[in-house]
């Protein structure tokens, strides 16, 4: 069975153990069968390298609330369709002076990832725990990014890239200037632009331009993810504009084994309350500012030096 774990008491609060260690304990109790654990809160928040290698997922840009029911009512402030755009500096000319507060219901949906693994891993508690914490949780974060940006199959979450009426802004010939102008546009709508979601290529272009200190000084957090196209940047007032809803039942981890095959499933129930959809904008970069993918050389036979 490999190295035994130190604690044999359930720890759903994860005060002494990681999610992977909690599942490994359950697997020790049910060797060769199905093991399942429930932990308090969202499993995606427990990636062990997050503190030393910060790369926040979309959920970390949002304020969060835990709800006990399957749905919750919230207030959304929708823009007035007929409000004219003006340059007046009086309150009556601002978009929020004409917004219409509306009661809306948000529902929870299942967000899960299933990862096949060799059954041999499941017979080694330390190896199983490390694989769950370092690999399964990362994949769950990727699936969550996908759902929060593009929406869930059941429609419970619309997705921030698919918000009705999402403004599309056209970028110019300078990448950083375009991002700053788009951030100002968010604030023209009454929000405070506090975060960006972009493709990794765009992020590393900003690194190369030496722009991150400027972005940091403005208080902008960046999520880089492959779940957004390289020619797009999503900007918005993420903390005020939406609330991430976590199901009160907590997250679940399940290990299923069948002979030499096994599967680990991780996930939970989440929802998204969109309070201010007009506080988000999608910047479409000019073609000349879109960072290209690096050319990958075709794999060939290894050259043996003479």
Overall description:
The structure is a single chain. This protein is α+β, with helices and mostly antiparallel strands and 306 residues long. 24% of the residues lie in helices and 28% in strands. It has seven helices and 13 strands. The strands form three sheets. Strands 1, 2, 5, 10, 11 and 12 form a six-stranded mixed sheet that branches. β11 and β12 form a beta hairpin. α1 (19-29) packs across α3 (125-150). The longest helix is centred in the middle third of the chain and has 26 residues, at 125-150. It is globular. The model is unreliable at 1-7 (pLDDT under 50).
Keywords:
alpha+beta; disordered N terminus
Q: Estimate the mean pLDDT confidence.
A: 90
What structural category arises from helix and sheet content?
alpha+beta
Largest sheet: 6 strands, mixed
Order of helices and strands: HEEEEEHHEHEHHEEHEEEE
> How does the overall form come out from the CA principal axes?
globular
- Computed over alpha carbons, the radius of gyration is 23 Å
Briefly summarize what is shown.
By secondary structure, the protein is α+β, with helices and mostly antiparallel strands. It has helices at residues 19-29, 119-122, 125-150, 175-188, 200-208, 212-217, 238-241; strands spanning 34-39, 63-67, 71-78, 100-107, 109-118, 167-170, 195-198, 221-224, 232-236, 242-247, 251-258, 261-274, 280-284. The relative contact order is 0.22.
């Amino acid at each position: 069975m490999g190295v035994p774990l130190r604690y044999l008491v359930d720890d759903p609060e994860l005060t002494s153990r990681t999610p992977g260690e909690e599942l490994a304990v359950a697997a020790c109790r049910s060797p060769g069968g199905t093991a399942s654990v429930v932990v308090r809160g969202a499993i995606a928040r427990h990636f062990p390298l997050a503190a030393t290698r910060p790369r926040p997922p979309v959920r970390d840009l949002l304020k969060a609330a835990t709800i006990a029911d399957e749905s919750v009512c919230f207030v959304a402030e929708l823009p007035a369709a007929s409000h004219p755009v003006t340059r007046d500096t009086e309150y009556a000319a601002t978009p929020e002076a004409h917004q219409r507060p509306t009661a809306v219901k948000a529902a929870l949906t299942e967000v899960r990832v299933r990862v096949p693994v060799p059954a041999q891993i499941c017979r080694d508690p330390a190896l199983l725990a490390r694989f769950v914490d370092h690999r399964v949780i990362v994949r769950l974060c990727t699936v969550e990014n996908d759902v929060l940006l593009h929406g869930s199959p059941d429609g419970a979450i619309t997705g921030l890239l698919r918000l009705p009426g999402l403004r599309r802004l056209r970028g110019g010939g300078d990448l950083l200037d375009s991002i700053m102008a788009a951030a100002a546009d968010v604030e023209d709508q009454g929000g405070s632009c506090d975060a960006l979601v972009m493709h990794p290529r765009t992020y590393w272009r900003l690194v190369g331009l030496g722009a991150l200190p400027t972005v940091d000084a403005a208080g902008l957090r960046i999520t880089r993810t492959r779940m957004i196209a390289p020619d797009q940047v999503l900007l918005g007032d993420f903390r005020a504009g939406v609330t991430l809803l976590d199901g009160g039942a907590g997250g679940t981890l399940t290990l299923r084994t069948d002979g030499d095959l096994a599967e680990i499933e991780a996930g939970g129930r989440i929802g998204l309350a969109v309070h201010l959809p007009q506080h988000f904008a999608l910047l479409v970069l000019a073609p000349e500012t879109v960072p290209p993918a690096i050319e990958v050389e075709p794999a060939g036979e290894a050259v043996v030096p003479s």
